[in-house]
Amino acid sequence: MKKVFEEVKWLFNYMISILMYSVLVLLIGVGVLLAVYFVDFKFKTKNLETPLYGAYVIVSGSMEPLIKIKDAVLIKRVDTDKELKQGDVVTYRATDPSYYGVLITHRIVDVKEENGKKIYVTKGDHNETVDRSPIELGQIMGKVVMRIPKIGYIKYFLVTSYGWILAIVVPSLFIIIMDIYKLVKNIMNGGKKNEKVINA
User: Fold this and answer.
1) 113 in Cβ contact with 119 (< 8 Å)
2) Residues 123-168 pLDDT 10s
3) For 131-137, which contacts have Cβ atoms below 8 Å and span 24 or more sequence positions?
4) Contact at 8 Å (CB) between 141 and 50?
5) pLDDT in tens, 11-39
């Protein structure tokens, strides 16, 4: 029975260690991404450019079935029109009076040239008609390079008070409690070892 208990205890400690290392790696990854974003944001602010990378949650079904509602898209900044072609999916800031300034993610279905400038005709995959207002390079925030399914649900969950508590506070308290437990355990084991040395 004691052997089984020791094995269960070892397995529990092993799983906890994996969980803690996973959280640590995740936090390091998030930290690196935030550092890159911060540096790029500072550079962008000085040079009036859009960030190198950005992520947006999709709130409409205009790009279904490729991109669904609550999916997130990762976009990369486009610096020249040579990086864009027909078929690319881009996120742009609309100039149409009906939804002026709104960020839209649609596909480029045609590329035209007017007065020496390239004009892009866009359309949602699920829409029957093209967007009313063609766009220029300056409106484009970036080209979609990755889709992350349903990540929007996590975002909306985290912005709630209970979501933030469950996702941040509880794991943090758990890690702190485990560290205190290990510290107390090491102190007690150290005391026992000292007693054995004295008795010897």
Assistant:
1) yes
2) 999 999 999 999 999 999 999 999 988 887 776 776 676 666 666 6
3) 131/94, 131/96, 131/104, 131/106, 132/96, 132/98, 133/94, 133/95, 133/96, 135/92, 135/94, 135/95, 137/78, 137/80, 137/81, 137/84
4) yes
5) 777 777 777 777 677 667 666 766 666 66
Q: Where are the domains of the chain?
A: 1-49, 50-149, 160-191
Strand order in the sheet with 53-57: 53-57, 72-76, 140-148, 89-93, 103-114, 117-123
Class in CATH terms, 50-149: mainly beta
Query: pTM, whole model, 2 decimals?
Result: 0.62
Residue identified by tokens 């107390």 is: 184
Express each pLDDT in 73-103 by its tens digit: 999 999 898 999 999 999 999 988 888 889 9
